[in-house]
Design goal:
By secondary structure, the chain is α+β, with helices and mostly antiparallel strands. It contains 15 helices and 21 strands.
Length: 439
């Protein structure tokens, strides 16, 4: 089971940065070139200068280390005086197609002792897209720091850890209360009470942790720990053995998962023309008049409550094709029922690969397949003929993801998308391999 510990985070000095939102950034892998330039110009101390450093080759990592050392030396960044667990709340609004709703996602940031996925302490939940991890490895090794957190989920039906943190922060003014340009409000409390920390650590020792976002970064953390740990140090005794993680309770009502719609391109039109007839062994097939995001989204959610449902929109075609999974459908090719009940498994296993010929390799390279979490954006691409067709779907439910992972299965790529992303630069971990944690 996971070993969770408090730590002394490296944070921007609030007296130097009263508008701390100016120095925060989204995760590095979702920042576009234009947004990167905007963040760099927003503040000379914006975390993007460290997390996405400029420079050629390995020189950019050396540059990031020099910046980090300079910011620590001039007091821009300071390490907290006592070990803490950091309670983190994000309040945000989102329109899923049926009106704007406000959510508050609660969780906490702490260190976790790193272990490979094979140890089954930390679980992956989906196959990741192929991509180099060398960049993150070099950045972490050169800077000896984690600038952001892995996003993880854990089950806690009784809310033991959450209740302990709630008691410790209910009447306490947050250390950070900032709103980023995307409208998300970030609130952070440094919880240093030893009894509360012990309660959280003990409760989490009984849990299993699943990565919601950050698979590549977690694998990099595991790979780099041996490179940073001092020679002769026993495992689990060095700060290098621990990584920074945000933990969200799976039962949290503020936990929002967005669907990841699939858009196809580069296929023969005849293949798509035959889709309706070829789907009939597994689906009830029907044409509908729904064309806008509100009507499609509402019907998707309504019919998705009783069975797996997809809406298919094609370029230059008026009707919307509706596919509803039959109760007598043979799902044996999808594997055990834990996977067969997932919308994403049904779509990939019954339609994309066998009927459209989009296999795992093509998915990894995105040769015939692209993705979007925004229903309106997806429909606009279909209407403009930027793509041939779109498969519109419901979001994967959190308990379904956990059920599959705990049973030892890994979901297809792009199975989930958690909204919003964590803010980079709010809480950082400076790694001193010669020191133990919580000192």
């Amino acid at each position: 089971m996971p070993r969770i510990v408090a730590f002394r985070a490296l944070r921007f000095d609030p007296s130097r940065f009263p508008q701390v939102a100016q120095v925060l950034a989204p995760p590095y892998d979702v920042i576009s070139p234009d947004e990167r330039a905007r963040l760099e110009g927003q503040d000379a101390r914006n975390i993007v200068h460290l997390d996405l450093p400029r420079g050629e080759g390995d020189a950019k990592y050396v540059h990031a280390r020099a910046l980090l050392d300079a910011w620590v030396a001039d007091g821009s960044l300071r390490e907290d005086s006592r070990p803490a667990i950091y309670r983190y709340e994000q309040t945000f609004s989102f329109d899923a197609g049926d009106g704007l709703r406000t959510y508050t996602r609660k969780g906490f940031i702490a260190l976790i002792e790193l272990s490979p996925f094979s140890a089954r302490v930390v679980l992956p939940h989906e196959h990741t897209l192929s991509g180099p991890k060398v960049d993150r490895f070099k950045l972490i090794k050169t800077t000896s720091a984690h600038f952001s957190q892995i996003f993880a989920l854990y089950r806690d039906p009784q809310g033991v850890a959450e209740a302990a943190l709630e008691r410790a922060t209910t009447v306490v003014v947050p250390d950070v209360d900032a709103t980023t340009p995307d409208g998300c409000r970030h609130k952070l409390w440094a919880v240093t009470d030893k009894a509360t920390i012990a309660a959280v650590e003990q409760s989490m020792a009984q849990r299993q942790v699943m990565i919601a976002d950050g698979h590549h970064r977690y694998e990099t953390m595991v790979a780099i720990r041996d490179a940073l740990r001092p020679a002769g140090a026993a495992p689990g005794t060095s700060q290098a053995d621990f990584g920074c993680m945000f933990f969200a309770r799976a039962e949290d009502p503020g936990l929002l998962v967005l669907p990841t719609h699939r858009m196809v391109h580069g296929l023969a039109e005849e293949t798509l023309d035959q889709l309706a007839s070829r789907c009939q062994p597994w689906f009830f097939v029907e044409e509908g008049d729904e064309r806008d995001s509100a009507s499609i989204g509402q019907r998707l959610r309504r019919e998705g409550e009783s069975t797996v449902t997809f809406a298919v929109r094609r370029a230059k075609r008026n009707p919307t094709l509706w596919l509803r999974l039959r109760k007598d459908a043979d799902l044996s090719r999808l594997g055990p029922p834990t996977l067969g009940r997932l919308d994403v498994s049904v779509l990939h296993g019954l339609i994309l690969e066998p009927l459209l010929g989009i296999g795992a390799e093509a998915m990894a390279k995105q040769q015939n397949l692209t993705y979007s979490h925004d229903l309106r954006e997806t429909l606009a691409k279909v209407e403009s003929s930027s793509v041939q067709a779109a498969f519109l779907m419901n979001a994967t439910k959190v308990h379904q993801v956990l059920d599959a992972c705990e049973a030892g299965f890994v979901l297809p790529q792009k199975s989930t998308y958690f909204q919003p992303k964590l803010a980079t630069g709010l809480v950082m971990q400076k790694i001193d391999p010669a020191k133990p944690v919580s000192v």
